[in-house]
Amino acid sequence: MKNSLSIKETLAIGLMLFALFFGAGNMIFPPVLGQYAGENVWLAIGGFLLTGVGLPLLGVIAVALTGTGAKGLADKAHPKFGTIFTVILYLSIGPFFAIPRTGTVSYEIGLAPFLSEGQAESWIPLFIFTLVFFTITYLLALNPSKLVDRIGKVLTPILLAVIAIIVFKAIATPMGMIGAPDATYKANPLFTGFLEGYKTMDALASIVFGIVVVTAVKDRGITERKSLASACIKAGLVAAVGLALVYISLAYVGASSPDATGMVGANEGGKLLSLSANFLFGSAGNIVLGAAILFACLTTSVGLVSSCGEYFSKLFPALSYRTVVLIVSLFSTFVANLGLAQIISLSVPVLVAIYPLAIVIILLSFLDRWINGRRVIYVVSLIFTGFFAIIDGLLAAKFNLGGLPNFLDSFIPFYDLGIGWVVPAIIGAGIGVLISMLTGPPKQLAS
């Protein structure tokens, strides 16, 4: 039994985790943030890093310290809640949104620029591309034990090399000057960037991928709890540093691009990157970019399909891992053909509603030693959080809630910034503490 990983092993697992996180949304959202934030790009990307890097790192650390995944963390509130929340989480980062997005983004940036106008408007190229893409995903996901070797040692270095080429060229030959911020990033760029980080879905994925890291470390002979946690944290830091550097670089590419690309739509990060690559490298730029997107999306797709296969085959024992992977791959192919804009528009309300719950679950897990089995603290805090998160989700889905938003904005701190759930979550935890003190010693949760 070993006590620690070698530097080479830590880097391999860290790069694997980086590749699992870094997929479609991670490529397309930072450049748009940079372009719209303009001179406020560094504040905006700072907020983005909090939810796009900081929270995923905390999620991995939470899994490493507790030794349990998404279901185990959510079970601390209640087993039924744990099951419902975890199913929603896996469906969100799985076949409903994140997995299909990997195929669609790969197509729109990697293949569509090379098609004629008539071909690009047809549904046939997208269908054929996504069918091939998810067939490859299915085949790679059939043997998850080789995930570290396939992703950490092979695909990730290729991905980083391609991204580095684009970024270094953008720095060496700037596309233009960084302009004034758009109205959406003028008043509160930090908080706007914070909310944009939700779209990566990485905080949700972290409590799924955390188990992949734990398993990879155990496979290398480390089983003692403290040594296991330490190794996982180090690998998580490798992934976090990589993500932060790439996000900052891509945000700069976007911020310096308006003169060359014009202002793209808020959900058109793929178009912005395509135009930037073409400006920087000419016709070869789209090939370089297409390769980067393909590797980024494929690695994430394999990781998510594999994770869904592991979870749902255990939840429904009648379904084998192979069967679940096949179902997820086929369903993702279908959803991917709805188009990128439709997938993003459908995902945002769900993310706005469940992200705060995931954040609270992760943060409370760090206090678990002091909570000491007082389930009511989790329950009350999550109820308070969920109330405001669901309202925000309904508003993001364009539901008319009358004067309720204005009423809440008048007395809930930070509500106008999109994080009105924060203070209620803290108050809920405090009320939970008081209730637990009044109702006697806590019941220890089953391990």
Strand content bin: under 5%
CATH superfamily of the largest domain: Amino acid/polyamine transporter I
Give the ordered list of helices and strands: HHHHHHHHHHHHHHHHHHHHH
Uncertain spans: none
How would you sum up the global shape?
A: globular
Any idea what the radius of gyration is?
Answer: 22 Å
Q: Which structural class fits the helix and strand makeup?
A: mainly alpha
What is the CATH architecture term of the largest domain?
A: Up-down Bundle
Question: CATH class of the largest domain, anyone?
Answer: Mainly Alpha
- Count of discrete structural domains: 2
Q: Total helix count?
A: 21
- CATH fold-level assignment of the largest domain: Amino acid/polyamine transporter I
End-to-end CA span: 24 Å
Helical amount? over 70%
Mean pLDDT: 87
Main sheet makeup: none
How many beta-strand elements?
A: 0
Notable characteristics:
447 residues; mainly alpha; Amino acid/polyamine transporter I; 21 helices; 0% strand; globular
Task: Outline the secondary-structure elements.
Layout: H1 7-21, H2 24-37, H3 41-66, H4 70-74, H5 79-96, H6 98-110, H7 117-121, H8 123-141, H9 147-172, H10 189-196, H11 202-218, H12 225-255, H13 258-261, H14 269-281, H15 284-315, H16 321-336, H17 340-365, H18 368-371, H19 375-396, H20 404-409, H21 422-438
Helix pairs in contact: 1-9, 1-11, 1-12, 2-3, 2-12, 2-14, 3-10, 3-11, 3-12, 3-17, 5-15, 5-17, 6-8, 6-15, 6-16, 8-15, 8-16, 9-12, 9-15, 11-12, 14-15, 15-16, 17-19, 19-21
